[in-house]
Amino acid sequence: MSDLLQKILDAHGGLERWDRFTTLNANIVSGGELWGIKGVVQDTMPREMTVSLHQQQASVTPFGNPDWRTAFRADYIAIETSQGEIVRERPNPREAFAGHGMDTPWDPLHRAYFSGYAMWTYLTTPFFMAMPGFNVSEIEPWHEGQEIWRGLRVEFPEHIASHSRFQDFYFGDDFLLRRHDYHVDIAGGFAAAQYVSDYVEAQGLRFPTRRRAYLRDENLQPLRERLMVSIDLSDFRLS
After folding, report:
1. Which of 27, 45, 57, 180 gives 235 a disulfide partner, CB atoms 3.0 to 4.6 angstroms apart?
2. How many CB atoms lie within 10 A of CB 113?
3. For every residue of 19-83, which 3-state class applies, written as one string?
4. What is the mean pLDDT of the chain?
5. Per-residue pLDDT tens over the stretch 86-124
6. Which domains does the chain have, with CATH numbers?
7. 61-92, pLDDT tens digit by residue?
């Protein structure tokens, strides 16, 4: 493990503390342009997101019905009742995005899969970088105003679902995450720059409560008028 990654993990609460827990719950409120582009109805009702910390599983509740929730794994997505009865399911969900562009409509299982892998990635950052199979290397820093943010490029293993295989993460002087860059492969590969801020501490670990993902141009600059996804998070609970 590089010295930079070690400092980043420590700043977020430390790998030793992270390994004491298996599950993270948080309340989320989502918005942004992407949902309308995809023909998805989005409201401002808070939902509960649950992710496993050491394997890629996630669930959001409620989803489409007060008594429904999602069940996400990299190779499977389902909508189920609170009692675990399957409402709809899709094995190998990544295949269902073949040929999609940014404006291709999504059905509920498309949306559930996207939300599952995206929120698992966000809520386990940066600790997933220490999991087996992830390759991490330092890249050129990013200049944001008067600040210089050090960068890590992460290559995701094939068995982990996420936006794209290679993603870039930038960290401030305090080694907390400031920005996350990626391509959304399941939506035509559009480039995004996600800014994160407003950290809170929960059980000794630190999490951003504000995430804003913008379209990104060829010069890596965010297009501030194109807010694709907004996520506000609260009430982090680890068990």
Report:
1. 27
2. 25
3. CCCCEEEEEEEEECHHHHHCCCCCCCCCEEEEEECCCCEEEEECCCCCCEEEEEECCEEEEEECC
4. 97
5. 999 999 999 999 999 999 999 999 999 999 999 999 999
6. 3-238 (2.50.20.10)
7. 999 999 999 999 999 999 999 999 999 999 99
